[in-house]
Amino acid sequence: MARVRYVGPEPVTVPELGDREVQPDEVVEVPDERFEGYVCQPANWESVEEPGAKKKTSAAKSVPQKED
After folding, report:
1. CA distances in angstroms from 1 to 8, 28, 61, listed in the order given
2. Which terminus in the chain has less CB density within 10 A, N or C?
3. Where is this region: Disordered (predicted)?
4. Sheet order of strands, 27-30 included
């Protein structure tokens, strides 16, 4: 799923998301195939995570170094 941020001035109800009310500056997940339908409206939506983007992990695993 892709993610977009609502940048409009007032809450909106989004039927495609199950009639969910989205607040200004809220990030929501949208189906990858519908991503362009949101970001083509730059006055209302901005991209946060494009379709197919890999999720970033919050912490890197450290591997102990062997001493020679």
Report:
1. 21, 10, 26
2. C
3. 45-68
4. 27-30, 2-6, 45-49
